[in-house]
Specification:
The chain is of the alpha+beta class and 110 residues long. It folds into two domains: 33 residues, no CATH class; 45 residues. It is 30% helix and 13% strand. It has a three-stranded antiparallel sheet, with no helix packed on it. A hairpin with a 5-residue loop joins strand 2 and strand 3. The N and C termini lie far apart (106 Å).
Length: 110
């Protein structure tokens, strides 16, 4: 049989009541409502990031935190390859076009 020896500790940064177990000193929030982001929502966020929608706008629309979004983008950025594949170009003709430039500064006759 489990015996729960729990007491109220204090409030966390967002005002929720924090609790502490007297036996193991573990702190926790009772009835935590952690939000999990689905893969379909992540796909929508990826599309909006490609359209250069600001972080604040994405957070408001999808109700995610800016901290989560920044970590998500950093994780995406870490998976991008850092090596570039450059194909060699065949040398071609160099064409230079020059125009004549006439100046009429301090020349009232012209």
């Amino acid at each position: 049989m489990w015996t729960h020896n729990i007491r109220k500790k204090c409030h966390i940064h967002n005002g929720k009541q924090n609790h502490q177990c007297q036996e193991c000193s573990r702190q926790f929030v009772e009835n935590n409502r952690k939000k999990y982001i689905s893969n379909s929502l992540k796909k929508w966020i990826d599309k909006l990031l490609l359209e250069r929608i600001p972080f604040a706008g994405i957070c408001r629309v999808f109700e995610v935190s800016e901290t989560w979004l920044q970590k998500y983008v950093n994780g995406k950025y870490a998976t991008v390859s850092r090596e570039l594949e450059v194909s060699a170009k065949t040398p071609g003709k160099l064409i230079i076009q020059c125009d004549e430039l006439w100046s009429y500064v301090q020349n009232k006759q012209n």
